[in-house]
Description:
The chain has 115 residues and is an alpha+beta fold.
Amino acid sequence: xxxxVFSLLLWGIASIQSLAIMxxxxxxxxxxxxxxxxxxxxxxxxxxxxxxxxxxxxxxxSTLQFTRGYDFNAFLVDGDNRSLEVLVVMSLDENNEGYTxxxxxxxxxxxxxxx
Length: 115
């Protein structure tokens, strides 16, 4: 009788431990698959700042570019949860627009040469 009770007790403890392991959050799983980026374009005089933030508003990278453009817009060209491309369009005058493409790989912001 003691062995049956002892076996049932061990089985109960093992069941509770296995349930606790299944319910515990995994700590080694990368959360990069849920990463989001915030694009900020700010014009100051003849310069513009393009900044990339994560979802917690932590600055990941930025660039300062000289320009003589008047109006600016930043467009997300292509992106996923690890990288993105940003198109910055500058209205130089009524009939002329310039553009620059930047690629952010999750770590650094690179200016892509215009072809």
